[in-house]
Each structure stands twice: as C-alpha cells, then as structure tokens.
Amino acid sequence: MAAKITAALSGFRFPLLAAGLLAGTGALANEPQLAAAPPPAHEAAVADMLTHGLTVTMDQARIVRLPARVTTLVIGNPLIADAVVQTGGLMVLTGKGIGSTNLIALNQRGEQLMSVQVRVRPQNDAVVQVYRGIERETYSCTPTCERTIAIGDSKPFFDTALSNSRSRDGAASARGAAAAR
C-alpha cells in the first residue's frame, strides 16, 4: 500500500497518497479522496476552448486568455489564421481565410501546453460575390461596396485587391510611425 502523507489545506487535514495524488496518477480505489475544487473562471474557459475549439470570423480578431507560461504559438496553416502572444497571457487570434487549422501553444522550453482546433468562418453579413462568366469578384458592402480578397476570386481581381490592400496597409503604417515620433 502507498505511504500516507497528511496535508493541511484551509484548516482541514486530509490524507494524500505518495504514489497516487502527489505523483499525479490518481488515488487508489479504497483510499479517501479530496473532492476537486471547482476551477477558476479562467481555467474553465481554457477547458471549454480545448473541448470546443476556437471560432473566429474571417478578417476579424479575437482576444483569448491563454494558460500560464505560454511563450510561443504555432499555427498549422497560417493562410487560415494568425495568432500572436501578448503580455498578460493574452493571444490575438485573427481569421485570415475560411477553413480549419490547429494551434499549438508552447512554453519557454518548447514543451506543448495545449493544442486546439481553430475554425475561421466567412463574413456573412455584407459580402457579395459577382460572377462574370467564370470570373468571380468579392465585395464587402458595409455600407458601400469595396473590393475584398477571397480565395476563389479570379486572378486579376485578386491581385488588384491584394495590391490595394497592401498600399493601404503601407500608408497606414507610415502615418502611424510618423505620428509616434
């Protein structure tokens, strides 16, 4: 039989099994066990995330609280989603393309802390697709229609929309850098 150790917690004394609970393998069948305390809200949210995965809308960002000690995030398919670790144990998850991929969180030593499915859903609220023969163009109409990038658009339309998007990003970054000075 495993050696018993008595521990004190909040004024109560209870037996622990050296070969069981303390080693993380569980208690023996006939030994008394301490009922697990309900997990804090953060731990419950992480457990729910691991069970159900994460869903984000394409071209939208979502803030997610991570388990403690996460330093590195790995995305299975970076064309579908992007994730960045922020200070305070937060992650910014951005939907980049419709589909599903996985996200792995690692600690500083490279040990895996969690793995979760990430689903990116389309924006259904104001996206219009126009077909001209076999050529497809996608527009975001909120409130006026503007070109947007979507997988499956015709190459000339996609390239033009991508170029416009990069030009806007470059101009915004330049203005932001100038304002920071």
Account of the protein in words:
It is a single chain. Mean pLDDT is 76; it is low at 1-38. Among the domains are: 41-121, Sandwich (Immunoglobulin-like), CATH 2.60.40.1080; 127-170, no CATH class. It has 181 residues and is an alpha+beta fold. It is globular, with a radius of gyration of 25 Å. It is 21% helix and 39% strand. Strand 8 (99-106) and strand 9 form a beta hairpin. The chain has helices at residues 41-52, 155-180; strands at residues 4-9, 12-17, 54-57, 61-65, 72-75, 81-86, 90-95, 99-106, 112-121, 127-132, 135-141, 145-147. The longest helix is centred in the last third of the chain and has 26 residues, at 155-180. The strands form four sheets. A four-stranded mixed sheet has the order 3-9-8-5. A three-stranded antiparallel sheet has the order 4-7-6, with helices on one face. The chain contains two helices and twelve strands, in the order ββαββββββββββα.
Provide a short characterization of the protein structure.
This protein has 181 residues and is of the alpha+beta class. The protein has helices spanning 41-52, 155-180, and strands at residues 4-9, 12-17, 54-57, 61-65, 72-75, 81-86, 90-95, 99-106, 112-121, 127-132, 135-141, 145-147.
Report on the biggest sheet: 4 strands, mixed
Q: SSE order, as H and E?
A: EEHEEEEEEEEEEH
Q: What would you say the CATH architecture of the domain at 41-121 is?
A: Sandwich
The fold-level CATH name of the domain at 41-121 is Immunoglobulin-like
Low-confidence stretches: 1-38
Class computed from helices, strands and strand pairing: alpha+beta
User: What top-tier CATH class of the domain at 41-121 fits best?
Assistant: Mainly Beta
Number of helical regions: 2
Number of strands: 12
Question: Helical amount among residues, as a percent range?
Answer: 10-25%
**Strands of the biggest beta sheet: in what spatial order?**
3-9-8-5
End-to-end Cα distance, whole Å, is 69 Å
% residues in beta strands: 35-45%
The shape, in one word, is globular
The whole-number mean of residue pLDDT values reads: 76
Work out the radius of gyration.
Answer: 25 Å
